[in-house]
Amino acid sequence: MFDKNKVKLGIAPIAWTNDDLPDLGAENTFEQCVSEMALAGFTGSEVGNKYPKDPAELKKALDLRGIEICNQWFSSFLITKPLEEVEKEFRAQLEFLKAMGAKVIGASEQSYSVQGQEDTPVFGHKYVMDDEEWDTFCNGMNYLGKIAKEEYGIALTFHHHMGTVVQDPDEVERMMANTDPEYVSLLFDTGHFTYCGADPLEMVKKYVNRIKHVHLKDIRPEVVKEVKDNDLSFLEGVRRGAFTVPGDGCIDFDPIFKVLEENGYEGYMLVEAEQDPAKANPLEYAIKARKFIREKTGL
Fold it and tell me: How far apart are CA 235 and CA 164, in angstroms?
């Protein structure tokens, strides 16, 4: 079983209000979201679009509910924007996260990303970096990771993601091989590896010593097949229910938890399963996820 002092559980607000599809959960308030997170038994959260921007205000609301911020998504544009511009935005987010007491920032390279394009099929249309872009990207990640660690005490974890330049296992491998383990870690996402056709168990075994944040999401394979067969976008897949909470889809989490546990994983495991809250009640699914994780891990 995991050590409760070293592994914590969180849940993402994206099940209540979707940043990329604002109509999903538009009716749900920030207060409802964090109250239901606490009610379901989670102690960590990432940052959603309805969260107060003022750290003092946000901290007060979360403290009332026994919740802390454990990570926040950062969109990097290392291959399409000047590094100084990316660094400025990165530092501003690090300042916020430091004020919130967070230990992790989750970066995703969004240059040429199709994940947010509702009319672009997610399969077969992602951008592929050339050698020069790979160098720019990896050097940039090392640079940002050094700033995060040495100046803010925060770990940069990289989020591989459908529709982006680092999606498939070979791309993750190239990034890991060309970045400094001291400054760049992996945000391991069970759902995104499964979605692109990779084996999440194989991936966790391969990178377990560089994983500093975990996203637990499950997959409904019949919906992913629908997305692939009909050339649908990533966001259309979300609308149709491609993702769900752990234990509700096709992923076998037992061996994944075992690898993390046996290798002494420390940090957050966070349920991040974006669905349409009108179809999948966020509180109901949060409770379902929490129950599943308790049964499987003892946490």
Answer: 13
Residue from 172, 95, 82, 105 nearest 134 by CA:
172
* 212 contacts 242 by C-beta, under 8 angstroms: no
Cα 244 to Cα 163, 217, 239, 241: the distances in Å are 19, 6, 11, 7
CA atoms of 249 and 167, how far apart (whole Å): 21
Name the fold adopted by 7-297.
TIM Barrel (3.20.20)
Task: Return d(Cα 290, Cα 299) in angstroms, integer.
Answer: 9
Instruction: Give the ranges where the chain is alpha helix by DSSP (H).
Output: 30-40, 55-63, 83-100, 131-147, 169-177, 190-195, 200-207, 221-229, 234-240, 253-262, 282-297
Q: Which tens digits make up the pLDDT trace of 55-80?
A: 999 999 999 999 999 999 999 999 99
d(CA 167, CA 236): 18
* Pairing verdict, β 218-219 and 243-244: antiparallel
Domain residue extents for the chain: 7-297
Q: How far apart are CA 12 and CA 269, in angstroms?
A: 11
3-state class of 124 per DSSP?
Answer: coil
Distances (CA, A) of 240 to 75, 186, 220, 244, 286: 25, 28, 10, 11, 19
The DSSP symbol for 137 reads H
Cα-trace Rg, the chain: 18
Length of the chain: 299
Rounded CA-CA distance 280/299 in Å is: 24
What are the pLDDT digits (tens) for 246-262?
Answer: 999 999 999 999 999 99
